Amino acid sequence: MHYVTYIIFRFFVELFRIIPFSLIYFISDFVAILLCYFVKYRYNIIIQNLKNSFPDKGNNEIKKMIFPIYRNIADILVETIKGFTINAKTLQKRIKTVNVEIMHELYDKYYGIIGTLGHYGNWEWAGLLAGLKLKQKTVALYKPLSNKYLDKYIRNNRSRFGIELCPIYITASIFEKYENKKVFYALIADQSPSNIYKAIWVKFFNQDTACLQGPEKYARKFNMPVVYVYIERVKRGYYNITFNILTETPKQTNDGEITSLFMSKLEQYIRKNPTYWLWSHKRWKHKKS
Predict the structure, then answer these.
(1) Per-residue pLDDT at 12 exceeds 90
(2) CA-based Rg of the chain, rounded to a whole angstrom?
(3) Is 175 exposed, middle or buried (0-12, 13-18, 19+ CB in 10 A)?
(4) How far apart, in whole angstroms, are the C-alpha atoms of residue 41 and residue 32?
(5) What is the tens place of the pLDDT at every residue in 212-271?
């Protein structure tokens, strides 16, 4: 069954290769309508997350946000599929770095750098661009797929512009392997942690929120500066990346401080345009005891 799924996936990848960008957003709109009005994909989760995060908004305001959220999910889906065959020239036209010189300066001063990202904007394209724009080697930590055929294809495809995908299960050994190398570690850090006992708790959208300990743990252990990578949608199909330094002195920070800085910055940008974040995540499934 896994191989059949892989073949179907590759069919759509090749189909999207020949579909121009001018048409993929018609497909996205169709997918968004299906997800929102027929499938109702995680509809109750989205509604509850919005109500808890924006207690000042009435029901009508919340409802107005729903379809744009589904359209964002659909846009990321079609752009991700298109990204498997996008060439470097087209990619660099559609997603640009605003202040990459910050990363070049950090390259001259430090070995490892930790980059924290959220599920905001197009993080998939941002990963591809890192291999083209950064002086540092980019290592992206990810959760492997259960389908070994898909997982291998995605890892190989994503590395074509120079980044390396590494399973989260070997995170510690990866940091040790590249300890004295010029490496940018990209970590999407807004998921709910699987191990709640090691979670760092912060206030995020007025709620006690369990956060992954990884970025802070490794930043302090290896004394690496931490950068928040903001991916802003300029218009449909076009993005800008801005690098925000959270700290260059991680060992001088208090417990939870780096995580709090990241989540605060993430919330700041989500509030600018809430519909560009993945509200379908079960972000607050853990409750603080």
Answers:
(1) yes
(2) 19
(3) buried
(4) 10
(5) 999 999 999 999 999 999 999 999 999 999 999 999 999 999 999 999 999 999 999 999
- DSSP states of 65-130 as a string? HHHHHHHHHHHHHHHHHHHTT--HHHHHHHEEES-THHHHHHHHH-S-EEEEE-SBS-HHHHHHHH
CB 91 within 8 A of CB 129: yes
Which two tokens mark 60? 């009508």
| Burial call 104-133: b when 16+ CB within 10 Å, e when fewer | eebeeebbbbbbbbbbbbbbbbbbbbbbeb
pTM for the full predicted model: 0.95
Report the C-alpha gap between 10 and 87 in whole angstroms.
Answer: 17
Nearest residue to 282 (alpha-carbon basis) of 214, 215, 213, 194: 194
Strand locations in 119-191 (E)? 137-142, 164-167, 183-188
- For the chain, helix (H) and strand (E) counts, in that order, are 11, 9
- What backbone torsions phi and psi does residue 229 show, to the nearest 5 degrees? -100, 110
Q: State how beta strands 95-97 and 238-247 pair.
A: parallel
Give the strand order in the sheet containing 113-117: 95-97, 238-247, 226-235, 113-117, 183-188, 137-142, 164-167
Please report the DSSP string for 208-233 in residue order.
Answer: EEEE-SHHHHHHHHHT--EEEEEEEE
